[in-house]
Amino acid sequence: MKKTCSILLTSLSFTFIVNAQTFDPVLANKLQNKIDSIRTANNLKGISACVIYPVVGTWKGVTGISHAGFPITSDMEYGIGSNTKLFTGVLLLKLAENNIISLNDSLHQYLPSFNNVNQNITIRQLLNHTSGLADVINVVGYTDSILTNPNRIFTPTEVMSWVGTPLFAAGTSWNYCNTNYILAGMVAESATGQSFGQLLRDSILFPLQLDSTFLGVYDSVLYTLAHPWQGGVDNFSTPRKAVNSVAWSAGAMYSTSGEMANWYHSLMNGQVINQNSFNELTTFVGSGNYGIGLYSTNVLGRTVWQHGGTIWGGYNSSMVYDTATGIIICVLINQLPAQAFQVSVQLLSTLINNHVGLDESTIPDKLITLYPNPTNGLVRIEIPNQTIQNIKVYDLQGQLIKETIENQFDLSNLSNGTYFIKAKTKQATYDYKLIKQ
Questions:
Q1: Of 53, 228, 259, 342, which one's alpha carbon is 20 to 30 angstroms from that of 306?
Q2: 3-class SS at 183?
Q3: CA distance 435 to 437
Q4: What confidence score (pLDDT) does residue 429 get?
Q5: pLDDT tens-digit readout, 143-183
Q6: Is residue 131 scored above 90 in pLDDT?
């Protein structure tokens, strides 16, 4: 078993770069009406949502109550359940960037042996769910055992004693499994000599100024939690130490919709991990089309990267990143059962079917075509049956860095990264996301 000296991960200072302009009020009203109608139709307690729409801006919306007499507010924190896994995966990627671990390392290099856990499983196989391990949450009596003493704090080693017989040989198939990410948290602690919570704070939460995002049990609750409801019961008075300590690095984090959207925005736009790590993050494998803390899913005829999260007591979360436009959507619900992902899909549908500032009757069926994308320099834009009057290129800060009237232009002098294009015709203005590499 390998263990290094205690380290402090180096990290950059980040500023959230989301456009300063006022979000289109007509579109904002449509988004608010959407979450209001969904809550009413499904008799949900409350919803908190946030949208980051590149170049357009940021929208936040809330509807419903935390509990009697207390409406949901945008600064309320929710359990995000399995959306914790992306934080854990990114933490391991950052450790690899710092040469503290390698994703090809095996468990025996960091951890003692556990029953039913193959010590030759690699860190990568944990993170992309190809380890073959059985899920600890499937042990008979899992929930009842936890709730027998809700104040008890379980250790990860105790949780590992619940692992059942492996489902398949490591690397031969795919199965979503919380055990994988609990082991990943244990590897992070063994490799660094620091607690998982401290590693999260030092390498991700503090640099990204996520001061409303925390690890349940192990961090202080600084602000207001939305009351969790399940089966019509308000579970706020039931201690969550046992539930959160068992979920730990696989599902025990809390956040707000705004901070979760900003987390995705920073990650997807190259502000958190390097390009090699991002490639690992988005190498999707198996029947689940899973990367590291992310699924790749087709919805509404487009590819989105997403993850959901549910944790006992009454929290359901959904994160969605639309790869075509860069739109990010977070939906948090303080009730179970609930379908936060379906709310995200309906918000995405509202966004892509309501072009900002346009008369919808003028929008052609086939929109802007921009290619090649990604590009190493030369870019061409085509809009059928329309003449381009003006093209503007913006960086992640929303700053205008190029303007032209030609539908073919050169960006080879720009740094590699993400850019946003606005192409204006007589009929409309079209937005597109471009990757320069």
A1: 228
A2: helix
A3: 6
A4: 80
A5: 888 989 999 999 999 999 999 999 999 999 999 999 999 99
A6: yes
Average pLDDT, the chain: 89
CA angle 365, 427, 346 (to 5 degrees): 45
Residue 371 in tokens: 């290619």
- Provide the H-helix boundaries in 98-139: 123-127
Residue 224: half-sphere exposure toward Cβ, Cα within 13 Å: 13
Kindly provide the b/e burial profile for residues 314-338, where b requires at least 16 CB atoms within 10 angstroms of the residue's own CB. bbbbbbbbbeebbbbbbbbbbbbeb
Nearest-angstrom CA–CA distance, 141 and 144: 5
Say if residues 35 and 229 touch (Cβ distance below 8 Å).
no
Q: Which amino acid is at 120?
A: N
The amino acid sitting at 265 is H
User: Nearest Cα to 368, choosing from 321, 410, 431?
Assistant: 431
Provide CB contacts within 8 A for 261, sequence distance 6+. 50, 51, 52, 58, 328, 329, 330
How far apart CA 226 and CA 389 sit, in angstroms, is 49
CA-angle at 309, arms to 284 and 177, nearest 5°: 55
Decide if pLDDT at 301 tops 50: yes
Give the SS3 label for residue 423.
strand
| Contact call for residues 310 and 82 (beta carbons, < 8 A) | yes
Q: Within a 13 Å sphere around the CA of 35, how many CA atoms are in the beta-carbon half?
A: 29
pLDDT at position 198 = 96
Q: What own/partner pairs with CB < 8 Å and gap ≥ 24 does 111-114 have?
A: 111/1, 111/183, 111/186, 111/187, 111/190, 112/1, 114/157, 114/160, 114/161, 114/163
The answer to whether the CB of 302 falls within 8 A of the CB of 327 is no
Which residues is 432 bridged to in the sheet? 421
CA distance linking residue 178 with residue 310, whole number of Å:
12
For residue 337, cis peptide bond before it (omega within 30 degrees of 0):
yes
